[in-house]
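May I ask for a sample protein chain and its fold as tokens?
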Amino acid sequence: MKIIISGGGTGGHIYPAIAIAQEIRDRLPETQILYVGTREGMESTIVPQAGFDFKTIDITGINRSSLIKASKSLAKMPRSFFQGWEVVRDYRPDIVIGTGGYVSFPVVLAATFLDCKTYIHEQNALPGLANRNLARRVDCVMLTFPEAQKHLNAKLIKLTGLPVRKDILNVNAGEARQKLSLKEDKFTLLVFGGSRGAMTINQAMVGAMDRLQHEDIQIIWLTGENGYQDIKKSLADKVDLHDMKCNLQIFPYMNNMNEVLAVSNLAVCRAGASTLSELAIMGLPAILVPYPYAAENHQEMNARALLQKKAVTMVIDEFLDGDTLYQRVSELMLDPQRLKQMSNNMRQQARPNALKDIVDIILPQTKKP
């Protein structure tokens, strides 16, 4: 069997694609898998490191900052479609899978004209432009958020959830707490913005620390690698890091995010689909600060979907400051009953079998019990 998988632009499109590819290979080791991406995207590094054959086509996302830039992006579409056509025609796959991002569009579109099965997976509550246009042509659309369905016209739609890292599913909270030198009976706040950080969240935390330093809590703050030293300097100018009631652990990044999530009572973070899927698995409530420049503001749509289910609270990026962040954290910290209900509501959104369910749809003859 031959399979093409395409998705790129952000980790939110790439990592689910790799997880699907790995699960397919686990079930059918002889399957040949080709990943199609772009030379400039993150996938050009991540995919070969994961051990999959990689081919590129020339396409860029639509730059909505000006009509001229958008026109230049659109001008590449016919050429990228024919490149996608050539890749699919020459490889002759049995199945083509798209996980979103602009690169998946010409590849999956070309496949719908050829003799192969086609599937797409949509991570967000508001489907991306590529998947909205592909939905009516492919054999099946798989969703993370049920709210996405109303935006799609498709032959078949399945709610599967989003694959998460396997270490998220198997973490031991007690062992993680010991490793991180944290106490079980103390409230633990986790603040993070991804590997690159989130400037708004970091600046708000600096502003909130003059009061949080007096609270009997534990704080794990992952600033991101960009600006870590500047944040530490700003913090040192504001508070005495050696004379605080709270237990503050501040790092640029941590590889053991599964352990950090497992020991926390509340998170402050962005609203990317992968992050929210991991929070749901852990039943970890959050104060979400959606990234304001995400395509078509899809992070805010993700956050609002969980806000309606009373699993999170939300602060719009431009309205977040130290006072607001402290008030939101303090309100939830002093209301354990509400926090527990939010945790239960978040856990109800979890789909720990997402990867299995996705591959069961793609390869029904190999369904695992």
Remarks:
- Confidence is low (pLDDT under 50) at residues 63-71.
- The radius of gyration is 22 Å.
